[in-house]
Specification:
Blueprint: H1 9-16, H2 21-32, H3 46-54, E1 63-69, E2 75-80, E3 86-93, E4 99-102, E5 106-108, E6 123-126, H4 129-150, H5 158-165, E7 174-177, H6 187-198, E8 210-214, H7 218-227, E9 232-236, H8 242-248, H9 251-254, H10 257-271, E10 275-281, H11 289-299, E11 304-310, H12 324-336, E12 341-343
Parallel strand pairs: 4-7, 7-8, 8-9, 9-10, 10-11, 11-12
Antiparallel strand pairs: 1-2, 2-3, 3-4, 5-6
């Protein structure tokens, strides 16, 4: 049956064939509270709950087929979609305990970035808005169930656990479109999912807590600026040298750095917000003084912070992670030039869930 996520209460009632539309709204509320078992939706008539169970209805179109976790607290889920394709999403927990859902926007990816494992899959298809929302829902249900189980006093439903934990933002506070795929190549579905995430009657997650990452698809950046959706933007830059960037990021052959910079200036003039350059540090490839000088030059004119990400190793890719000294030398160049930067601690490496490591190998297995 059709997914019940990213739907209105009336649409849910229609999908389930309910005679009373308000029951669709009740189910909608349960779903956004993390209650996915119809039997736990106790404000519905017992006869309806039994009927939905007997008919084998599920709120989801996707199923969890694998779960991996590591000592950093990261959890990666492999989800099988209704047509058999497999995607991955990741839950990351920072040192303060805040949780971020890293979701995919496509099955596979057509961008072919040389340092990214997802590119080895090739492109399968764009995800629907409900398939994006379901990733968050699966992660939310997993968190809520885990926390419910850890409580000394038993609670009657996952919903009570979620509500007790946080009345205003559930248990996952941030969403990043940094999973599999290029969000700007599936912008309509991405923005539809974001509307649901942001809806105060749904997950009520502020736009400031939602980040879209792109490898530099210029039309998508311009369209995002045009629609004035106030989400955060992260741009995978990796190199500010046109020749080098074209070698490792094929998107640069279509949209070179000059076009990318113009689009980003337009986005920033509309949004008024600082954005992020994601700069994957690769040993002996983009960490020299010349590389730093070009990055410094490219940053001029922007209100931007450079997020330095030491390459996360993958067996399929030939690159290496730079050592601490190589990173320190590079950051000193940036610091002297007054470029704001951070160094990302990659959580999820142990489960191939860190930046650039998603590839849904479970599908091949």
């Amino acid at each position: 049956m059709a997914s019940l996520f990213a739907k209105t209460g009336n649409e849910i009632a229609e999908i389930l064939g309910l005679s009373k539309s308000f029951q669709g709204k009740q189910i909608y509320k349960h779903l956004v509270d993390g209650v996915y078992d119809f039997e736990e939706m106790t404000d519905l008539p017992l006869s309806l709950r039994k009927s939905l169970k007997e008919k084998g209805f599920s709120p989801f179109s996707s199923t969890i087929i694998r779960k991996d976790s590591d000592k950093s607290g990261a959890v990666k889920l492999a989800l099988r979609l209704e047509d058999g394709f497999v995607i991955e999403c990741v839950l990351l927990t920072d040192s303060s305990g805040e949780k971020t859902a890293c979701v995919s926007s496509q099955a596979g990816c057509a961008m072919g970035c040389a340092f990214c494992r997802t590119g080895t899959m090739g492109f399968k298809r764009n995800l629907k808005d409900y398939e994006i929302v379901e990733q968050f829902a699966h992660l939310l249900g997993m968190v809520a169930t885990s926390e419910k189980a850890s409580q000394s006093a038993a609670m009657s439903s996952v919903r009570e656990m979620v509500q007790k934990k946080s009345q205003d933002r559930k248990t996952i506070s941030h969403i990043v479109f940094m999973g599999m795929g290029e969000p700007m190549a599936n912008l309509d579905s991405v923005l539809s999912a974001i509307r649901f995430f942001n809806d105060k009657n749904a997950y009520n997650i502020s736009h400031r807590r939602i980040t879209i990452s792109t490898c530099g698809v210029v039309p998508g950046i311009k369209e995002l600026a045009k629609r004035t959706v106030p989400v955060k933007l992260a741009v995978s830059l990796v190199s500010a040298d046109n020749t080098k960037r074209s070698e490792i990021m094929p998107v640069n052959r279509t949209f070179p750095l000059s076009e990318l910079k113009n689009a980003l200036l337009q986005f920033q003039s509309v949004s008024g917000r600082r954005f992020t350059f994601e700069y994957c540090l690769i040993h002996n490839l983009n960490t020299s003084k010349a590389d730093a000088d070009k990055l410094i030059q490219f940053c001029r004119g922007f209100e931007v912070i450079v997020n330095l990400i030491p390459f996360n190793p993958c067996a399929e890719l030939p690159y290496e992670t730079p050592d601490k000294e190589e990173i320190n030398v590079f950051t000193r160049f940036l610091g002297k030039a007054g470029v704001s930067y951070t160094i990302r601690i990659s959580r999820g490496r142990g489960i191939s869930g860190a930046c650039g490591q998603l590839a849904a190998k479970v599908q091949e297995e």
